[in-house]
Amino acid sequence: MTLYQNLANRLREHIQHGFYKPGDKLPSVRQLAQEHGVSISTVQEAYRQLEQEQLVEAKPKSGYFVCSRKKDNLPSISRPPQRPLEVSQWEDVFNMLMNRSGDKGVQLQHAMPDMKAPTLKPLLKTLADLSKQKPELGLGYADIRGMEELRTQLCRLTVASGCQLHPDDLVVTSGCQEAISVCLRAVTEPGDIIAIESPSFYGSMQAIKAANLKAMEIPTHPETGISLEALELALDQWPIKAIFVTPTCSNPMGYTMPEAKKEQLYRLAQSYDIAIIEDDIYGDISYQFPRPKTIKSFDTDGRVLLCSSFSKTIAPGMRVGWIAPGRYRDKVTHIKYVSSSMCPVMPQLAIAKFIRLGGYAKHVRQMRQNYEQQRDHLLNAIKTYLPSDTKVSFPDGSFILWVELNPNIDTMELVERCRTEGVGFAPGPLFSATGKYRNCFRLNFSEQSSEKREWAVKTLAAILQRAVPLKANTVTPPNNAVLSHNS
Fold first, then answer.
1. What one-character DSSP code corresponds to residue 167?
2. For domain 3-66, is the CATH number 1.20.120.1460?
3. Which keywords does UniProt give here (predicted)?
4. Among 106, 142, 151, 456, which is most exposed with the fewest C-beta within 10 angstroms?
């Protein structure tokens, strides 16, 4: 047994026997190193192991604490169809995207960050200064790979996720949606099969549809992510060309795959010689400290195409994303060129300066704290007001969570009724290739005040109470069951 494993065992025993209680602050890294005569890196590795077991959590500038909340009543492990399927649901996705009611009601359906944060002011000032002082920069062509200033700063950022990249390893895109679309086209041909988590982000689903691919949805655990056992069975049975995953702060459930499992997933892809497209768009706003590693950090042969953007950490309107495409760099660059040529210069330069001067680090640090508090508030409201059989995810980061209601409830019907009352959410069928998860939905908790969020949950609860007679021992209806009024 290694030194860090021995230390982790001691700490685990102290926690399990109540020596340290939920919420208690644990000894500092330096203190434990001195007391046990080990290195600081040994203590850090012991704490990292306990974090993976969800026994402890790190809080920036505060240290390590015993996890204060038990993750109970989580959504069910998904059980999607065991065959590749064509993606549908575009009309429903389009209708939701078009439903932007401005300030009317409480709209919790769109995964939008807090764009009113004071920590964004330096970025806005930089944009204004660039437009005023050097307006010509935004008028001409630029490097199709993206501005070198930005790519250099992106390399600095990815060190925190375990990657060592060179600016030439990166391609800047118009947001993560373009990054995903480009990567899918780079590693597949029309008609190929992509293995994905289930549920999975509807934007990714629609990118698969647009590339004329089929989706192989893999059972997914609400805490640890995609089932590697089910994935391996699918790889044995079907000619899958690539694996698409969001292993850190997934959308929509918010889980973070344990580090050891990320490496196992990489080794599995290696053994079948297929690519992994990794969406890390929420990675920088993980509540864990240090920031979780990416699958890309284990990549030794260039098979992982890492995608991300600043749409969830800064603002979607900046339209600045990027890819670290590994061995597929030349093909990705070509597809990016024929797709949209180059990206606007001004946002790239402004974000590069924002990162270089430390503004980005300060901003995401503040956002992580804010979002974690807002998560806890929304979870408490759901527990207080929604029916007792409601299941809900426990996000490790980001600002979205997944709710599973009684199987008799159809959220496609429910969303229409809630809309008339001024409450919006993203219904579950949008997150499946075939419209599964009809009794589930996703909520965003970043934009609205705690009072508005609580009002929205109360309103949802009232609609459920008067519209649906929840009966014990009810037989689960088929997927097309609808919400019925009381007679």
1. G
2. no
3. Aminotransferase, DNA-binding, Pyridoxal phosphate, Transcription, Transcription regulation, Transferase
4. 142
